[in-house]
């Protein structure tokens, strides 16, 4: 507490001064604090918009890639599918309806990917200086899809029938047979 004793005396003396210095300094400090608070609100608003936009574009691309994989849509219909998902989810977070703009949809047939770039123009609550009252927030995402139909079956050979030696097969079968019993409950 001793360390701050001199500081407290200085502030008290400054506050008791009737010359107007306190009012001038308080006005300068308050305006800087107000600018800082406005800037913090703008940053939080842009962060929220970016997070919401990224969630919406992730859902749109993932769903479109799934539909391409399952054969629900063709590659030529991917643009309409992404736009439908963007429109359906355009009010997520602080985003407003029809605010999301699809910049680019790219389907790479070699890598089997769907890539989407979008943006939204966000109106700032506290436009500062020459920043303007709108700020562009962009998001991009990529998802894989497949056009191959694959059925996977797995089998575990516990009998030893796949062994090269047939005698080993017979002995493995005879050892396995007694363990295979049915129980009815």
Q: What labels would you give this structure?
A:
185 residues, elongated
Report on the structure:
The chain has 185 residues and is of the alpha+beta class. It has one domain (2-144). Helices cover 47% and strands 17% of the residues. It is built from four helices and three strands; from the N terminus they run αααβββα. It has helices at residues 2-16, 21-70, 78-88, 166-176, and strands spanning 100-108, 113-123, 134-144. Strand 1 (100-108) and strand 2 form a beta hairpin. Helix 2 crosses helix 3. The longest helix is centred in the N-terminal third of the chain and has 50 residues, at 21-70. The radius of gyration is 33 Å and the shape is elongated. The mean pLDDT is 81.
List the SSEs and their pairings:
Blueprint: H1 2-16, H2 21-70, H3 78-88, E1 100-108, E2 113-123, E3 134-144, H4 166-176
Antiparallel strand pairs: 1-2, 2-3
- The strands making up the biggest β-sheet line up spatially as 1-2-3
Question: What amount of the residues lies in strands?
Answer: 15-25%
Order of helices and strands: HHHEEEH
User: What's the total number of strands?
Assistant: 3
Q: What number of structural domains do the residues give?
A: 1
Distance between the ends: 80 Å
Major beta sheet, specifics?
Answer: 3 strands, antiparallel
- Individual helix count: 4
**Which structural class matches the secondary elements?**
alpha+beta
Shape: elongated
Instruction: Determine Rg (CA atoms, Å).
Output: 33 Å
Average the pLDDT over all residues and give the rounded result. Answer: 81
Q: What share of residues is helical?
A: 40-55%
Low-pLDDT stretches: none
């Amino acid at each position: 507490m001793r360390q701050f004793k001199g500081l407290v005396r200085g502030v008290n003396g400054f506050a008791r001064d009737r010359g107007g210095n306190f009012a001038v300094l308080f006005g300068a400090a308050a305006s800087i604090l107000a600018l800082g608070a406005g800037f913090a609100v703008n940053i939080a608003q842009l962060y929220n918009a970016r997070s919401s936009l990224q969630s919406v574009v992730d859902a749109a691309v993932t769903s479109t890639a799934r539909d391409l994989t399952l054969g629900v849509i063709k590659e030529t219909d991917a643009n309409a599918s992404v736009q439908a998902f963007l429109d359906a989810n355009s009010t997520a977070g602080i985003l407003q309806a029809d605010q999301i703009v699809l910049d680019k949809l790219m389907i790479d047939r070699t890598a089997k990917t769907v890539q989407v770039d979008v943006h939204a123009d966000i109106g700032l609550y506290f436009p500062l200086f020459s920043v303007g009252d709108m700020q562009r927030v962009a998001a991009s995402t990529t998802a894989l899809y497949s056009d191959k139909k694959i059925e996977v079956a797995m089998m575990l050979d516990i009998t030893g029938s796949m062994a090269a030696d047939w005698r080993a097969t017979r002995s493995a079968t005879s050892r396995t047979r007694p363990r295979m019993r049915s129980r009815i409950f």
